[in-house]
Amino acid sequence: MTAPVLELDGITKRFGALTANDDVSLTLAKGEVLALLGENGAGKTTLMNILFGHYAADAGEVRVKGKPLPPGKPRAAIAAGVGMVHQHFTLAGNLTVLENITIGSEPLWRLTTDRDSAAKKIARLSETFGLPVDPGARIADLSVGERQRVEILKALYRDAEVLILDEPTAVLARPEAEQLFRTLRGMALGGLSIIFISHKLHEVMSASDRVTVLRGGRVVAERRTADTNPAELAELMVGRAVSRPVRQAHEAGGPVLVAKGLQARGSGTPLDGIDFEVREGEILGIVGVSGNGQAMLGRVLSGLTRPHAGTLTYRGQDITHLTPRDAVRMGLGRIPEDRHAEGIVGDLSVWENAVLERIRDFASRGFVRRKAAQEHAADLIRRFDIRGATPATRTRLLSGGNMQKLILGRNLAAGPRFLLANQPTRGLDEGAIAAVHRELLQARAEGAAILLISEDLDEAVGLSDRVQAIVKGRLSAPVPAERADARKLGLMMAGVWDHADAV
Amino acid sequence: MRFERREDVSVTALLVAPFAAVLVALVLCAGLIAMAGVSPLTAYAGMLKGAFGSRLAVTETLTRASPLILTGLAAAVAFRARLWNIGGEGQFYLGALTATALGHATVTALPVPLAWATLALAGMAAGALLLLIPALLRLKFGVDEVVTTLLLNFITLLFVGLMVETVLKDPMAFGWPQSVPVAAGLRLPDLVPRSRLHIGLILAVVVVLIVWLVQSRTVFGAETRAAGLNPRAAAFAGVPITATLVKVAILSGALAGLAGVIEVLGPVGYVTTTMSPGFGYAGIVVAMLAALHPLGVVAASVFVATIFVGADAMSRATGVPSFIADVIMAVALLAMLVALLFTTYRVRR
Fold first, then answer.
1. CA of A385: how far to CAs of A390, A405, A422, A450, B276, in Å?
2. How many degrees, rounded to 5, is the angle at CA B274 between CA B273 and CA B279?
3. Of A462, A439, A421, the residue nearest A246 (C-alpha)
């Protein structure tokens, strides 16, 4: 092994009583791709934020090419050649690609920007590393995958030699993720050193040279990727063996929710006449590359956007002009795509979030019956195993998995006849994913009709009875999950389907 | 130096923040007082004495606090829902003008309690309407209400000026720009004899308690908080965002309007364009110092009233201009904003 370009030595970081990183050491060699594997809350992001200078460590040192970095100074990290691509992008939507890349890298007192040479440098970088973008495009008009490329280019533009990617695939669909890893591989061959943070085993296995596993803030193992396997990594990461539940075949009942020729528009990809039918006791999976109309479908079924054509029928009743309140009243459960933005109000307590949807059921004469509401929340916490929560806990303090259990719980407790599950496990760790899958299958066994929108093909095929692909706001004909192999799904998601397969 | 978000905001920190902010403001302003050639300790002692040193001083301070409680509450209610009502001053004046216009003759035929209720409702409606315009402009067209509510203050004040020079001009005022008085029988009874302190103070405190109850215990309160903290999640949960904000605007405008009504029926008795020493704007300071909590509004109002009344007395005694009160207010507001930052973030080296 060559001399390390990056060393983390004995990093310790505490937040109050919580020790996020406990004496963590790792090294990165030139041209190496290191995966930092760990569950949510294992301390991966904290560690990378220390490395990049967002946080100052309580103890320990970061060295780049042998030279210690001053703690808590992102600029020093950038100057030393460390570039970071955050999980949540830090781009200005109203500026162009070029402006976003050059912003901050030019002296403040200069009145003009040297656009030509900047554009040239960007073109050269995107050529070399296979990161095609249009420098003149506005960020707001780009897809998530393209935005990520801009983030990477931004780091490269500042001559980064060490690139840190925090959960780079959290927002990407499988094909985009595969493209990203091919790109990263090429960059490593070109001499860049890369750390990517992940909790997805298949990514780690396919894209890294070496894996460092974090659990509870400590390094629990370090393996060469070639010398390990997913099962071992999973156990190292979780600390025990976990397995996702398996769907049992059973007969579906009559149609519960039927969409006919649904069209809707607003922000993002519009729906262009879609048809589907979800039956009692069945999970219908909607797969597709992100940005093909999933968000709009979710909005329509949540009652947030009115379709301008087509009909939506729920148990024989026309609900084309659904409102969120109707949905709650009629027993249509909804798990939103983005739990932080739509699922919960972080600064309200767990009990308030548990009853907000049906607060009028927990009120008499306009006054909230707090005791009843708090008891209901306590009940949800018990039944759905929401850890780290009491009814009075500020919801923001829950982990992503426990937030999702709260959202699931408030929907499932009411015994919904229909459930919209929009990306229900996005960003969750293995343990939480298994818990969410169990709940969804349980609801299916109890007769709920479930529409699962997912960009995770394993999840969609594993849970669904039937699968439809969404492409540019249109839906393919449904195919049974048993017949949806990778090739077929690939074709469907590319917009190639034929109606002979329909069931 | 870096800011790190705290895991949780402690209640203690929120309780300590306003006191720390006031202390910082007083220390910073001590420098200005010293520049004016007076010992800051003498000046602050003079302010305390001026605000609380005699029976009259105490009643004056509380009289000044009464409208502040209501304008502060108006701001706090709106800010909680992220409706940035900077128009308390205009709503105050429109409430005052409405009460005077009706209270001079129109309602005098009614029994006094009924007349009071009519005037209060009319003044509240006027304040509410004045805030509804910018609120609807924001909800329908996305017009920034900070700008519109602020500018409406000047328009309203000019309108009041027009009224007191023309249709409501008091012919007995020897040419002073002053409106006709409200009927003597409609003036609010004194709370303390031989002072300007009237039952408006009690009324304001009762309103505070009602608003506190509504905010913390009702469906409307819960929905308002949800809508203010995360509008998207609130809408997803079925909270009618537009209707909720309209209700908040009505409540906020009505509270500021009520402040104007009570000021006219209480200590003043008529309208002039100088009747408010910035009650609407000071209400914003009050709301922030109270960390938007209704009960905090009462304490913050008394503090702000103390500074204003105390500064007048101190100015007469020491020669330091009473404008120092405005400076203390402004610095306290800035210090409070910084203190609030520290309640949610901690500083790391």
1. 11, 8, 21, 22, 57
2. 110
3. A462
Taking CB atoms and an 8 Å limit, are B219 and A342 in contact across chains? no
Pairwise CB contact (< 8 Å): B217 & A15:
no
B233 within 8 A of A357, measured Cβ to Cβ: no
Q: Is A339 left (phi over 0), alpha (psi -120 to 50) or beta?
A: alpha
How many distinct helices (H) and strands (E) make up chain A? 16, 23
Q: Are the C-beta atoms of residues A205 and A225 closer than 8 Å to each other? A: yes
B171-206 pLDDT, tens digit each? 887 778 889 999 988 999 888 888 888 999 999 999
pLDDT value, residue A76: 87
Q: What angle do CA B33, B38, B42 make, to 5 degrees?
A: 95
Chain A interface, Cβ < 8 Å to B: 15-16, 18, 54-56, 71-72, 302-304, 323-325, 327-328, 334, 336, 341-348, 352, 356-357, 359-360, 363, 366-368, 370, 394, 397
Spatial CA neighbour of B77 closest among B219, B332, B277, B250: B250
- The residue behind tokens 């039956």 is A279
Assign 3-class secondary structure to B172-231. CCCCCCEECCCCHHHCCCECCCCCCCECHHHHHHHHHHHHHHHHHHEHHHHHHHHHHHCH
**What are the residues facing A223 on neighbouring strands?**
A211
Of A304, A328, A394, the CB nearest to B8: A394
Residue keyed to tokens 């007191």: B164
Q: Which domains, from first to last, does chain B contain? A: 2-348 (1.10.3470)
What domains can you pick out in chain A, each with its CATH number? 4-238 (3.40.50.300), 255-501 (3.40.50.300)
Query: What is the dihedral sign for C-alpha B4, B5, B8, B14?
Result: positive
Give yes or no for residue B166 having a pLDDT over 80: yes
**Which chain B residues have a beta carbon less than 8 Å from that of A18?**
7
For A56, the closest of B2, B226, B232 (CB atoms) is B2
Check: CB of residue B75 under 8 Å from CB of residue B250. no
Contact A418, A302 (CB under 8 A): no
Please, which residues have CB within 8 angstroms of residue A235's CB and are 6 or more apart in sequence? A241
Does the beta-carbon distance from A348 to B220 stay under 8 Å?
no
Residue A279 Cα, gap to closest chain B Cα (Å): 25
pLDDT tens, position by position, A414-460: 899 999 999 999 878 778 888 999 999 999 999 999 999 998 888 89
Instruction: State the average pLDDT for chain B.
Output: 92
On whether the CB atoms of residues A350 and A452 are closer than 8 A, the answer is no
Distances from the Cα of B327 to the Cα of A327, A367, B339, angstroms: 53, 42, 18
Please name the helix (run of DSSP H) or strand (run of DSSP E) that holds residue A212, with its range, or none.
strand A210-215
Interface mutation target, options A75, A301, A345, A361, chain B, most CBs of B under 10 Å? A345
Q: Which residues of A touch B243 (CB under 8 A)?
A: none
Helix (H) or strand (E) holding A272: strand A271-279
Question: In this prediction, does ipTM exceed 0.90?
Answer: no
Residue type, A450: I
